[in-house]
């Protein structure tokens, strides 16, 4: 079996930066790495970007709002394809899979939208659990600086409020899922990478020896 690592955090926490650095770190050591993300680049992921992540991330299409339940189902459908077509086959052939977001994003974000946490957990039961989930924890003030320019000025307060709830949710999820480990995302890119490598060695590689 391979190794499955997920990087999570609020928007702009540095997930894709760290996922790429970690992929390079494994490749240097001779591992075969699959770097992936959610929403994916498949038809379902494209549908999500079109139906959910447009209109100031309000879920607006043609003037009609998509229900939060439908949003959650779309993310779960995208994930099912991701797990069955890429993640499980890659792990079976001994690869290291690094995913920028996974079902913990659905729990943190769709819960923040008002959906029931147990319902979300049950909906995502098919999703195999990773060996390690790195939660890049960042104060919302800093994340809003990092994603500045991506949103309309008029949207700033609403998005900051959502990010605050999402951050709180992630921290609650750490208490429920022992595979989740917090890393301080306020540090420099290099220091965060070193913290992640230390966790990978401690939580996965040393245990496999
Ligand atoms: N430790 C850091 N310190 C300062 N800036 C950083 C740090 N890590 C990443 N950044 C910068 O913050 C921005 C967001 O980083 P990145 O795209 O890696 O975040 P992300 O979590 O993947 O974002 P999103 O969830 O919105 O896709 C980029 O401009 C990146 O260069
Ligand atoms: C997987 C997943 C994602 N989301 C949200 C979180 C972000 O706001 C966007 C994805 O943007 P990114 O720049 O590509 O990271 O989608 C969500 O609400 N639920 C999910 O399951």
TrEMBL record:
Residues 7-196 form the Thymidylate kinase-like domain. GO terms for biological process: dTDP biosynthetic process; dTTP biosynthetic process; dUDP biosynthetic process. It is an enzyme of class 2 (transferase). NCBIfam families: DTMP_kinase (TIGR00041). ATP binds at residues 9-16. HAMAP family: Thymidylate_kinase. SUPFAM superfamilies: P-loop containing nucleoside triphosphate hydrolases (SSF52540). It comes from Thermococcus barophilus (strain DSM 11836 / MP). It comes from the Archaea. This is Probable thymidylate kinase. One of its GO terms (molecular function) is dTMP kinase activity. It holds the Pfam family Thymidylate_kin. Keywords: ATP-binding, Kinase, Nucleotide biosynthesis, Nucleotide-binding, Transferase. Transmembrane segments: none annotated. It catalyses: dTMP + ATP = dTDP + ADP. Its EC number is 2.7.4.9. InterPro entries: P-loop_NTPase, Thymidylate_kin-like_dom, Thymidylate_kin_CS, Thymidylate_kinase. Belongs to the thymidylate kinase family. GO terms for cellular component: cytoplasm.
């Amino acid at each position: 079996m391979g190794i499955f690592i997920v990087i999570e955090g609020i928007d702009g926490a540095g997930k894709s930066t760290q996922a790429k650095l970690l992929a390079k770190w494994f490749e240097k050591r001779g591992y075969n790495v699959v770097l992936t993300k959610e929403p994916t680049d498949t038809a379902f992921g494209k549908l999500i970007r079109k139906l959910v992540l447009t209109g100031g991330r309000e879920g607006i299409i043609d003037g009609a709002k998509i229900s939060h339940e439908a949003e959650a189902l779309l993310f779960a459908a995208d994930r099912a394809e991701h797990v069955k077509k890429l993640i499980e086959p890659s792990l079976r052939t001994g690869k290291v899979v690094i995913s920028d977001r996974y079902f913990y994003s659905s729990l943190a974000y769709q819960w923040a939208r008002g959906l029931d946490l147990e319902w979300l957990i049950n909906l995502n039961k098919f999703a195999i659990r990773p060996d390690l989930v790195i939660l890049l924890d960042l104060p919302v003030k800093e994340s809003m600086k990092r994603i500045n320019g991506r949103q309309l000025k008029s949207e700033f307060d609403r998005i900051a409020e959502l990010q605050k709830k999402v951050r709180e949710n992630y921290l609650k999820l750490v208490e429920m899922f022992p595979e989740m480990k917090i890393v301080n995302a306020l540090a420099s890119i290099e220091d965060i990478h070193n913290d992640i490598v230390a966790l990978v060695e401690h939580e996965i590689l040393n245990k496999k020896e």
